């Protein structure tokens, strides 16, 4: 099988592979630039950043690549509009947005000439996104990591969405290798989004302890937990998750007022930041359902080369 050409607006990546934008500084300039250099679309996870930090990350990425750089911004955060405006001011190539739905973002994108991609989990929402002006949609199934918008498999959602829209459909959720990519392409995807696989890359800047949890993961370690965002989240079992399951997790020490709506059962920002910096037992280690299938840390270039070989080996 040959990889198809993906087109998002006027963007034509060499390979139809998007690196998912992982929040709280998991996907930053170093990872996004490496993915762009490898021929995909590199994405900075903007959620958890303030405008100045996002501006700096975009500029850092631009200094390392001439490839395609995007940002992922959760609609659920209070500074959503501010971060979108910052990304547009920095002439970002593409914006991905999920965890809620913004109608305004499409107008902002049109004014700036920047395509907007909605992350959706149903044919109905995909059709709405297309109506408002989405350049493409990411069809995200329950196999994905982080916050989940559905309990339905990508294999069920993807054909449904493909029938409802004419814009490109990008499959996401549980894809960790070229064989998974080929399976999504056969189901009608125009491209794929992969996040978990790129955490186990040399260019991902999370702490070694975070990566070690990925490497040691077993299928039974991958759990769905409650998030104060109001959506479930997929994470690896650790001491924090055990407390969360029993309702004994520590409450917020302070409120950053970062979310539009929050249950206040714990601070999601602190939980994700703790894990990223190596305090893995004091926070959430978000991951995709198939994290246990990844057993080595490679460079982004090597990951891309392996994916291409595996796709090409499928008849």
TrEMBL record:
This is Probable nitronate monooxygenase. One of its GO terms (molecular function) is dioxygenase activity. The keyword Oxidoreductase applies. SUPFAM superfamilies: Inosine monophosphate dehydrogenase (IMPDH). Nitronate monooxygenase that uses molecular oxygen to catalyze the oxidative denitrification of alkyl nitronates. Acts on propionate 3-nitronate (P3N), the presumed physiological substrate. Probably functions in the detoxification of P3N, a metabolic poison produced by plants and fungi as a defense mechanism. Keywords: Dioxygenase, Flavoprotein, FMN, Oxidoreductase. It comes from the Bacteria. Pfam families: NMO (PF03060). PANTHER family: 2-NITROPROPANE DIOXYGENASE.
């Amino acid at each position: 099988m040959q990889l198809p050409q993906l087109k998002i607006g006027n963007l034509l990546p060499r390979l139809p592979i998007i690196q998912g934008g992982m929040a709280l500084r998991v996907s930053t300039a170093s990872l996004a630039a490496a993915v762009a250099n490898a021929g995909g679309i590199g994405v900075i996870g903007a959620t958890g950043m303030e405008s100045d930090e996002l501006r700096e990350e975009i500029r850092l990425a631009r200094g390392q690549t001439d490839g395609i750089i995007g940002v992922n911004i959760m609609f659920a955060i209070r500074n959503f509009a501010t971060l979108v405006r910052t990304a547009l001011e920095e002439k970002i190539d593409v914006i991905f947005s999920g965890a809620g739905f913004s109608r305004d973002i499409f107008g902002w994108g049109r004014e700036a000439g920047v395509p907007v991609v909605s992350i959706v989990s149903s044919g109905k929402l995909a059709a709405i996104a297309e109506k408002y002006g989405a350049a493409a949609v990411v069809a995200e199934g329950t196999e994905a990591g982080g916050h989940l918008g559905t309990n339905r498999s990508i294999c069920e959602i993807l054909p449904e969405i493909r029938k409802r829209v004419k814009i490109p459909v990008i499959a996401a959720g549980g894809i960790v290798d070229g064989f998974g990519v080929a399976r999504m392409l056969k189901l009608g995807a125009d491209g794929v989004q992969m996040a978990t696989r790129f955490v186990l890359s040399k260019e991902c800047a999370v702490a070694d302890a975070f990566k070690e949890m990925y490497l040691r993961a077993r299928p039974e370690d991958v759990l769905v937990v409650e998030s104060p965002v109001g959506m479930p989240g997929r994470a690896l079992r650790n001491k924090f998750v055990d407390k969360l399951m029993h309702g004994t997790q520590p409450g917020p020490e302070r409120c950053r007022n970062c979310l539009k709506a929050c249950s206040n059962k714990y601070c999601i920002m602190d939980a994700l930041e703790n894990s990223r910096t190596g305090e893995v037992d004091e926070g959430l280690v978000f991951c995709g359902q198939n994290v246990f299938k990844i057993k080595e840390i490679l460079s982004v270039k090597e990951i891309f080369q392996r994916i291409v070989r595996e796709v090409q080996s499928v008849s």
